Amino acid sequence: DRTPRDGMVFKSYEEVLNFYKRYALRTGFGVCVKKSSFTKAGLCRRLLLVCNRWGNGKEDACYQARPTAKTNCQATVVARLWGDGMLHLTDVSLDHNHPLNPSAARFLRCYKTLPSGMSKDLVVRAARGECATSGGDVEAPPMFDDWGRLKIREGDVQAINCFFAEMQAKQPNFFYVMDFYVEGHLRSVLWADSRSREAYQYFSDAIWVDTTCLRSKFNVPLVLFLGVNHHGQLVLLGCGLLSDESTESFLWLFKAWLTCMKGRLPGAMITDESVAIKAAVREVFPKTRHRISDWHIVRSIAEKLGELPEYESIKVQMEAVIYGSLKDDQFETRWKNLINRFGLQDNEWIIFLYENRHLWVPSFLKDAFWAGLSVNHRESPGAFFDGSVSHETTLVSFLSNYMILVQYKYKMEQQDDFESLTSGRVLVSKFPMEEQISKLYTLNMFVKFQDELKSTLDCQVQQVSPSSFVVIDLAEQGTGLVTRKYEVVHCMETNRMECNCGLFQFSGIVCRHALSVLKWQQVYDIPPCYVLNRWRSDFKQLHALDNPLKDPLVSSNHVERYDHISLQCLRLVEIGMVSDDKYQHALKLISDMKRTLLDDNLCRELEQKMSPPERAIVVNGDSHAQPGSSEGGPAKKRRGRPPKKSKEISAESVSNQCGNKESLLVSSDVSQKGALHSSSTASNLGTHVRAHGVDDLMEEVNANEVSFESRYGVQSSHPNHYGDQLHPGHTLQVFLFSYTTR
């Protein structure tokens, strides 16, 4: 715990002072030693630490003439020496009467004072991890020994830099950010590759923040952002490295990740039971439904209550109360009976659980969709890296194997995509609803639906009212069978269907109880609103069609153009790699597009064919038909100078207009460089002329005719690279035409 409180114990004066300074530096204020006393043996008897704004300033006239920063702040910490030889904190007050500024606190004078024998250079080296920890002449200062920084080992800094450099070279859309603290030492890191950023666009309805490595004190303090894909499997949405489990660290991590995902909030979020995480989620994700993982709570029963004599009985009955309560009031009653029976009224952990019951008890969580995370709530969601990260794994080893581990996951997803699109489904019944789902869902999700359909054989339906039913489910428990009653509501007029077991809210699969009611009512098709698109085999294609990227306004900013085109292409990559046919077709389209974009002449021909017919450009009151837009088909290109009605422009004046120092003379000795320059200039001027049109050049493109060559008549044998020699006369003619039509 890094927050001062009454009862904390320290060994020495320096330990208390350093601890409180660390807290003050994180919080955003300075520290002063108001009083201190020592025994004859040199032990600290009493220590009083106050805020640097304690008091009212000096009373001298010369000081009163200037404004003072003192506000008589009463935030104090008192440490007293007890009989055990330790300093105990008493009278801790953490309330300030002035604003705090963590980002600027490092500039305060109290943090610039170094211990005796220390130099500025030594502190900076310690922050970078360059000081010797054993076998050397100097050691790291206590302030930087184990707090506020990543546990960097030899070679870790180089490994991080090389990893980020390699990822950026391979993936232009790779994102990473680092957090540096006092004296420039590394505190936190976040990164997400292009596949993770694109996957979040599809699977942002529910995410899980896995802090197992951080809580278990692994050598790699890894934090994972995970989602669920359309196969019901975990998908990576980002990775982070944190130096500690403080609220400040999680605030930075969540804000950085949200920036990486372009500010799009998740629908629901699952985290561990942590006060720091809870506060950070409430601030960064105010509209996101937060949930504490009940699996971690059940796992903590042994840690929190294992010393009680009736621990085994408490654990069994607590799990029964958690997972056996279908309604909120039912949980309230059964929980209170459990607490009174075992006398747990004063247990701090039990009080914490009850106060936050709306964040982890299943009966309180049916107001959001959880995408199958921790279904049945009794099993761990499972580590994403399948045991590849352990206590002994080093950061260098993890980063070197990161791409191998991630690529394996991507390969598994591609294999599941292929099987879902090509493999047949084995039906176990003749119900039309089974055939309905088999044609839509991925193979994994269809199997889960099929399990629920087969379990309807163990259910018995009793009608209570026209739209209300009670389903008696015969289920296994231990070595015997038990019967449980579930309430199902199904309104035929509105197709509203709800079961208090909550399986559809937790996993997106219609439960066996609702299926039993549908069969009893002789409804053989599942209502469309309960067939989720996110479990379909073609979900990514449907999502791309239903959520097109908005075309931004025409911008001259090359960075904005690059970002927009990159996002558009990433969506096509996800679709183009699904099958061999789509992959080959995507390569052909890329080849056509590349050939077209690299040749200015081809671009102009395409733009003319894409423009509406009979477009005319008026120059000096005269109307001239645009080339390629006259009746009877495309017009042939003119040779020589433009008609005499156009404004006569000499080659010398054109050269001056464009800033060329050399004259553009028609000669057979025109160099390749000059020809390319003229062609590029003509393309720019042509773009300026086309900007005055009122029609979108892409409006008349037929989406079904996706080949550039077949749609626009582009010949594959046309010269299409920069190295070709352009005819100098032709280049100059195009240049003059573009200028005169302006």
TrEMBL record:
Stretches the record annotates as Disordered: 613-662
Residue ranges of every copy of the SWIM-type domain listed in the record: 486-522
Primary site of residence: nucleus
A GO-annotated cellular component: nucleus
Highest taxon above the source species: Eukaryota
Compositional bias per record (Basic residues), positions renumbered to this chain: 635-644
GO MF terms, alphabetically ordered: zinc ion binding
InterPro entries assigned to the protein according to its UniProt record, in alphabetical order: FAR1_DNA_bnd_dom (IPR004330), FHY3/FAR1 (IPR031052), MULE_transposase_dom (IPR018289), Znf_PMZ (IPR006564), Znf_SWIM (IPR007527)
Pfam families in the record: FAR1, MULE, SWIM
PANTHER family in the record: PROTEIN FAR1-RELATED SEQUENCE, PROTEIN FAR1-RELATED SEQUENCE 10-RELATED
Protein name: Protein FAR1-RELATED SEQUENCE
